[in-house]
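Researcher: Here's the sequence for the chain we discussed earlier.
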Amino acid sequence: MALLDLSLVTKTLVKALDESFKESPVAPKAPAPLVAVTSLPPDLLPDNSCGIYLYHVVEEAALKNQPWPGRPLAPPRYSPLGLNLHYIVCARSTVESEEGPYREQLIMGIALKALHDFPVIDDATLINGVPVMAATLVGDENKLRISLRHVPVNEAVSYWTAGSQPLRLCAYYEVSVVLVEPWEPKTAGGRVLAYGVETFVGGLPRLHASRSTITFTIPGESNPREIEVQPAQAAIGETFALIGSGLGGGTVELRIRGEGWNGSRTADAGWGVSSLGDTAFATVQADADGEPVLPGAYAASVVQTRTSQLSDGTIKTFTVISNETPFQVVPKATCGAVAPNGVFTITGGRFAPAANTQTSIGAASLAVGTGGALLPGQYAILTESSIEARLPAGLVSGTFVPVRVTIRGAESAPRWVKVP
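Model: Thanks. This is the structure I predict for it:
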C-alpha cells in the first residue's frame, strides 16, 4: 500500500467502528441517539461518542533500507516511507450520574471487540454487510493490520496527567505498515534483451598532448631553425599533431572547442585529419564547421567510429570520444621591407580587432594609430591579413629588431626587421 493522505487510514477505522456500533445489539440507543464515531481527540469528544485519534507516527525500521521492486537504486524520495500509526480510542458520555461512566465503558467494550474481531482490514472486509475500506484505497491490495498496544499503567496515567485533563478510560492501538507514496522516477532502465562481453583491441582513445614545429631564420644565418613546442602552436595552413594512445583504427574526426563558441565544432575536410598509430594530424584552417578560427587557445578531442562484430555475429558501429588537450592557433606574420621613414607592412593573418591584438618591436609595445599617418611607435590593422607598423624612434640603424604579433595570448613565430 502506498498513499500520501494518512486520513484515509483514519476514515477506514472510523467506518469500521461506526458499522460495528450499528451491528451491535447492546450498543446504547436510548435515551440518546446511536453512538457517534469520530476522529476527534479525547478532550474534544461530544456526548455519547467514541473517538479514534491518530496521536503519534513512527518509521518502520525494517523497511528503512529495503530495495523496492521496480524502483531504481536512487535517492530516498523514490522509495516508499514505511510508517506505524498510533491511535488512541476513547469514549465520552456527559450524563452526570453513575450512568455516564457505565455508558463509556459499554462503548469502549464494543470498540475493543470490533478491533479484535477485525485485526486485518482489506478490500474484502465487511462489517454489518458494508465494505469499510476507504474507496480511494480499494484495488491496490491494501491491508491495515491493527494491534492493541500493551501500554504500561504508569505510561497511560502520565499521558493524561501531563496536561490539564483528568484521567480517562482509553485504549492504544498500532496500525501497520502504512507506506507513504514516493516520487515516481521520470526515467527507467531499458529492458535487457541480450548480453555479452564486447572487447576493443585498440582500447579507448586517449590524448596526452599536442605538438607542432616552429620554423624561423635568425638574422645572419642562412639555414632556418626548427623547434618543437608543446602544446602545439600553429598558424592557419600549418600542421600540428595530437599525441596519445588508441588513435588508430576506424575513422577519425577532430572536434575543436574555442573561447566564446557555443559548444565544440567538428573540423571540416579541409583540416585533413588523419591518424597513424598513436598520433593524429590536422592542418589549421580559417573556419571549423562554419565558425571562424581566430588566433587563441583551443581544446582538441578525437572522435573515433569503429565497426565491430558482436558475439551474436551482428555488425555494430560504435562511436567513442577521447579527452581534450589544449593547442594554440597563432597569427601568421611575414614582415616586408622597412621604408626610410620606418614604416613597413606585416602580412599574414588572421588579425583580430585592435582590442585583442598587440604588436611589439623589440621591448617596445606599439600604440594604435591611423593607417597611412602613423607616428613612430604606432601600428594600424588595415585588413584581416595586413598590419601597417612604424618603428619606434631611437633604434640604431643597421640593426635587426624582433617583431611580434600577439592576439588573445597567442604569439606569432619569431620574425625580424632591419632598421634603415
